[in-house]
Amino acid sequence: MFLNTDANDDQLILSLNTDANDDQFIVSLNIDANDNLLSLNTDANDDQFIVSLNIDANDNLLLSLNTDANDDQFIVSLNTDANDDQFIVSLNIDANDDQFIVSLNTDANDDQFIVSLNTDANDDQFIVSLNIDANDDQFIVSLNIDANDDQFIVSLNIDANDDQFIVSLHTDVNDDQFIVSLNTDANDDQFIISLNTDANDDQFIVSLNTDANDDQFILSLNIDANDDQFIVSLNTDANDDQFIVSLNTDANDQFIVSLNTDANDDQFIVSLNIDANDDQFIVSLNTDANDDQFIVSLNIYANDDQFIVSLNTDAKDDQFIVSLNTDANDQFIVSLNTDANDDQFIVSLNIDANDDQFIAALNTDANDQYIVSLNTDAKDDQFTVSLNTDANDD
Q: What highest taxon heads this organism's lineage (predicted)?
């Protein structure tokens, strides 16, 4: 059965369809006197029962109902809009999925007010969220509880004139996670605190970041009992002058300290690394004031018996270099290089007990060349001395 009449574009539509084999029973009614609509659909095999109503007389009023016995869905939604102020309520119940959902949205002059609730018995989820926006100042609260996963989550976001205030809490009993984070931004000055502790992984983390006028202050702490890691790092930047301290110690046996401070691009760096299992002991220092480099590095390695010291300082391109390397398998090396105004002064010494080599070389050039070299090798019974001196090219 079908009827359509249109008088001055005011539509009246009636349709009826019933099919015994498919068990469909459909009724739709569309009356348009300024856009009004009613429809009904029920299907026995699919167990669908749907009713929708739409009335629009300069405003929208919409009600829809859908229930499906096989899927156990029960849905009701309501939408009314008066002068573009939306009011929406929806309800969804699904017995098989055990979902129960309620949501509410109202918008008056673009000020949003939203409440939603979702609980699912199989997943044991319980969720509540609230969003209020008055003149773009957001207020959000959300809660999620999940018994099977043991999750408990609370988050809060407040934004008044773009100044953000955020608090979130997450704890998970099975994973033993406990997380708290706080972020507040007043006029772009960030203040962030986060805490995470996980009993199974034995992680304990605290981080703090505050930025006032783009001056960053960051502190982070990480403790992990299983890995025996203990880490502290600090970064503060005031007017682009960086000050960084980091500490990492691992009971399996690393101990690391590093410091970096840069004031007006003058770098000052200290790093220390001690590793008991590998027997490494490393110290390095680098400071650069007005591009005058001063570098000290020390490396001691017991297993390979290496002992290394190096020093490099350059003041106005006058290089001063000292390096020392001794290896119990049996090398002993010393080298010195200093260059003042291109006058080279070089001394090198190499002693190797197993090969019985003893080598010394000296080169100094002060507008003139003066070179001395000595090589003696006990096994080959070689003993060599050479001297070259050139004064005024003689």
A: Eukaryota
